[in-house]
Design goal:
The chain is α+β, with helices and mostly antiparallel strands and 285 residues long. The chain has two domains: 157 residues, Ribosomal Protein S5, domain 2; 105 residues, Alpha-Beta Plaits, CATH 3.30.70. It has nine helices and ten strands. Strands 1, 2, 3, 4, 5, 6, 7, 8, 9 and 10 form a ten-stranded mixed β-sheet that branches. Helix 1 links the parallel strand 3 and strand 4. Helix 1 runs parallel beside helix 2 and helix 6 crosses helix 7.
């Protein structure tokens, strides 16, 4: 039973992010397009029969009970055999508070991998609805396809945007999503678009200005990147991304990156590495 499996936990970008209103429960209604990157964390799972769930390394200052990976595993435990357990090792490369969806992606990978490893066989839709309780971005990672998202991010329509190369810059600051969404000056009344209008509308990120105001490092990164390529912030930040036609062009810009910024080059992809891995494993049966 002691088989070890390593699964990808990719980053996402919000190609645009519009806030179209605020709901009575304090959540915001939004419209965004999610695309994956061929870059991210990895999680290694070793199933055990002592019904324990352990995670290495633990996240500093976070109890297991609050760790999204642990919470995702616990959500599935009631569906598994009584003594199903797992040892999970997280290989982290994605920064936290960066707008790349790292924590949500880790939770989604845990759901998809354990559904397979523990042989629970819940549907993708069921996994996604379980995942929604962990965070608004978890379902997109569970489904694993680029999508136009509405509502609080849970209404997903698959889309196929271009798959360019991106230079992603992490300005070295953590942005608290809840804090940005609670700011009174955040725009909250961007008109709702139809899917048809997406291709012709001018699309921005409604969080960009307020995040730049609070974190000058984000403004600085954006100002630098926009000299090389069309550039935007992802999510509530702090990462910004520029779009390039070739890997070479993105790498050339990366070479010029100022010393106080961190960057990496990745390809935008419409099918997530997680979905690809699952498809490979399930086709072998």
């Amino acid at each position: 039973m002691n088989t070890s499996q390593t699964w990808p936990s990719p980053a996402k970008l919000n190609l645009f992010l519009h806030i179209t209103g605020q709901l009575d429960n304090g959540y915001h209604s939004l419209q965004t397009t999610f695309q994956f990157l061929d870059y991210g964390d990895e999680l290694t799972f070793i199933a055990n029969n002592d019904s324990k769930i352990s995670i290495y390394p633990g996240v500093e200052g976070i109890n297991d009970e609050d760790n999204l990976i642990y919470r995702a595993a616990m959500l599935l435990k009631p569906f598994a055999s009584i003594n199903a357990g797992v040892d999970i090792t997280l290989h982290k490369v994605l920064p936290m508070g960066a707008g790349l969806g790292g924590g949500s992606s880790n939770a989604a990978t845990t759901l998809v991998a354990l559904n397979h490893l523990w042989q629970i066989n819940l549907s993708t839709a069921k996994l996604a609805s379980l995942g929604l309780s962990l965070g608004a971005d978890v379902p997109i990672f569970v489904h694993g396809f680029a999508a136009f998202a509405e509502g609080v991010g849970e209404k997903l329509t698959p889309v196929e945007p271009e798959e360019p190369w991106y230079l992603i810059i992490w300005p070295g600051v953590h942005v608290n999503t809840g804090e940005i969404f609670s700011l009174p000056e955040l725009p909250r009344n961007t008109p709702t678009l139809t899917l048809e209008q997406l291709s012709s509308a001018s699309l921005g990120n409604d969080c960009e200005q307020v995040t730049k105001n609070r974190h000058p490092e984000v403004a600085k990164a954006l100002d630098w990147l926009i000299e090389y390529a069309p550039a935007k912030m992802t999510g509530t930040g702090s990462c910004v991304f520029g779009q390039f036609e070739t890997q070479q062009a993105a790498e050339a810009a990366l070479q010029k990156l100022p010393k106080d910024m961190h960057g990496f080059v990745a390809k935008g992809i419409n099918q997530s590495p997680l979905a690809t891995k699952l498809a490979q494993l399930t086709s072998h049966h």
